[in-house]
Amino acid sequence: MFFTLVKLIIGVSKMRNFSRRDFLKLSASALAVASVSTLLSGCVSNFSRDALSKVSFSHGVASGDANQQAVILWTRAIPVQAGVTQVNLAWQLSKDPSFKQLERSGYVSTSAERDFTVKVDVQQLMPDQRYYYRFVAADSDSMTGVTRTLATAGMTELKLAVFSCSNYPAGYFNVYREAARRNDVDAVIHLGDYIYEYAADGYATERAVEIGRTLATDNASEIITLDDYRKRYALYRTDAGLQQLHAAVPWYLVWDDHEITNDTWHSGAENHQPDSEGDFFERRSAAVRAYYEWLPIRPPMGEDSIQIYRSFNFGELLSLHLLDTRLIARDQQLAYKNYTDPQTGEFAAARYKEDISAERNLLGKAQLGWLTGQLQQSSAKWQLLGQQVLMSKMHIPAELLGTRDFSTLPAKLLALEEVKLRVLRTQQQGLEPDAEDLARVTRLMPYNLDAWDGYPREREQLYATARALNKPLLVIAGDTHNAWHSVLTDQHGQQVGVEFATPSVSSPGMEKYLKIEQEQAAEVASAFSTLINDLQWCNLHQRGFMLLSVTVQGVQCNWQFIDNILTEDYQVVAEHKAVYQA
């Protein structure tokens, strides 16, 4: 079971003469082996290293879930000596990088029961303040991390870096490294697929041996148990770019499906077979526990709960609402194959229409009600929904959905683009387009039922709420491995917001599935934008991330794309900008 949050009220006078005996006594009673602690006040300025353990900080440091007066600090402290099951550390928080004047500090204990991960929830900090932090062991210090609390008011600009889908065997996390090199990023938002659950010969592993990104031999199977998930996080956190970005700024994270397993819903997943892989809920519990252990998150209902949705206010400029579209309420995804006769290929259109129009949950009533309350209470200029899957209507000509040979899709897309352009030119001339042409480009179906397109009724409920509250939505998404810019329109064609979707850190995009050649990528992306009514622009073939620059006047999204993930050498080779003014 998860460890309960331990609240420590540490007086300054008591801590200054804190002995090794005092430390061990406190560890055995109040702290036990828990590594999540909340420091309300106090400062350990003259600690003795004799009271601390010898450890390795090989997975770096991280901070996250910063608000106006608190922040989570994270590290992993691996005992140097074999057989040690518990370690004792100190930590320090300072306004200066030399740690000469400590703002907060304390002792913390962790153990094998938490995979030697450490989380400290530091409280009673000043708003809008940059802090430096580190962890201290008997004969070593961790790297120094930088974090920042949020402003209460007066914030005029904000820059957020947005990421999703980092697959270790697919390539190096150069995208993280690039963001870490910038000096203008205030925080990171990670929208899920921080790890992948597949085996060493599974998804996106084709070049893993060649590039030196293989899975560990004791973790090469698909991950199912708590030990499996912990080892996978440990491997991912060895990436230098990831460590650099975690140390550079605070992170705000939410999971998608691969932190558990592919296409997860509330009671199962596409990539979970109960007959051979056991109980789904046991697997989910193991995955969630490892996630909370390894990431700098303050779970709103504690580490025993899968409730992860939560909000943060960046002054009066922006409210960030991080949502869960996977574990809490998602009903099982619809699948086109279940409506198609395997013998005749006939599609059961009436049954599909009935099912897709039914009341089906993605957020669920409780989370949607919570979000409604957050939108209603927020006085911020911008309402940012950080969530996993595309919210916009991604409806493509229905004839494309029957394509079995994906290599033929680019040619079909380009041909249909010509048809759509011909229809538009004819209509602009005040003439009736050819009936067959018109039917081909107006008979539309959603291409991905795992996204919000598979839950349109609940999407309309959200849109209606935002419209009634007069709160235009700024939505960010991940999941697809590609970059998208779309307008959000309701069933009446009214715009209720905009969506910016980030490309992946390393997972392959549509260039792999559609077998798009580099020189053809731009025209295929243009065809998508022509054929999908709400889609303004997309990039289907490059890895990268998004930079959101937020002011009162507007939000600019700047997509950054790099040229290489097969080695640690790369360059930023392209960018695209879009501006939203509500």
TrEMBL record:
Protein name: Alkaline phosphatase D
Stored Pfam families: PhoD, PhoD_N
PANTHER family noted in UniProt: ALKALINE PHOSPHATASE FAMILY PROTEIN (AFU_ORTHOLOGUE AFUA_5G03860), PHOSPHATASE, PUTATIVE (AFU_ORTHOLOGUE AFUA_6G08710)-RELATED
Alphabetized Gene3D superfamilies for the sequence: PhoD-like phosphatase, Purple acid phosphatase-like, N-terminal
Phospholipase D N-terminal domain span: 59-149
Species of origin: Arsukibacterium tuosuense
Residue span, PhoD-like phosphatase metallophosphatase domain: 160-559
Keywords, alphabetical: Signal
InterPro entries: Metallo-depent_PP-like, PhoD-like_MPP, PhoD-like_sf, PhoD_N, Phospholipid_Metab_Enz, TAT_signal_bac_arc
